[in-house]
Amino acid sequence: MRRGAARLFSLYACCPKRKESRETMENRKQRTLTKVLLVIYLAMLTWLVLFKLSFSLSMFYRYQHINLIPFGASFLPDGRLNLAEILGNVFIFIPLGIFLKMLKPSWSFAKKTALCFSLSLVYEVLQYVFALGTTDVTDLLDNTVGGMLGIGLYILFKKWWKGKTDRVMNIFMLVFMALILAAVLYLNMA
């Protein structure tokens, strides 16, 4: 009788562990998906920032220029501020902030922001070194702000979606990147 009760107790005691392991397995799947999406995002970002969405190497710019005056080159010929360029530079780095918050939740806000700044700086330096366009301090500032907004958005979404945030964000990022890729392909074919 005692063995039967002990066996029943051990089966009952292990059930919550199975549930935890399923949750852990789901978390691992989400984390793996997040990493894959981050790699795809970084490839798309590199294609956008360095290669200007070009399919041909002959379309590269062959000049080197550095703009160290914030928003100095952000004006249109008629004197208006080019908000599309500024907002575009902010917008393209928002996903990086979200991915950093998902993958490195224990990092401080400053550390995540520093990584966004550093990646943007690497892109700007590579643009100059390989003569792929203008190296612009405005882009550096805008990209960093975009990363910071991404971090903040994730914090806000976490309050709404609680434990489902990573799953929802992965779905959102997957759809977002598919739409961006489709738009870029469409614009390059038009």
Tell me about this structure.
It is globular, with a radius of gyration of 23 Å. The protein has six helices and two strands, in the order αβαααβαα. It is 73% helix and 4% strand. The protein has a two-stranded parallel sheet. The protein starts with a helix and ends with a helix. Helix 2 packs across helix 5 (137-161), helix 3 (94-103) packs across helix 5 (137-161) and helix 5 crosses helix 6. It has helices spanning 2-49, 83-91, 94-103, 109-129, 137-161, 165-189, and strands at residues 64-67, 133-136. With 190 residues, it is mostly helical. The protein has one domain (21-189). The mean pLDDT is 82.
Question: What structural keywords apply?
Answer:
single chain, 190 residues, mainly alpha, two-stranded parallel ribbon, 73% helix, VanZ-like, VanZ family protein, membrane
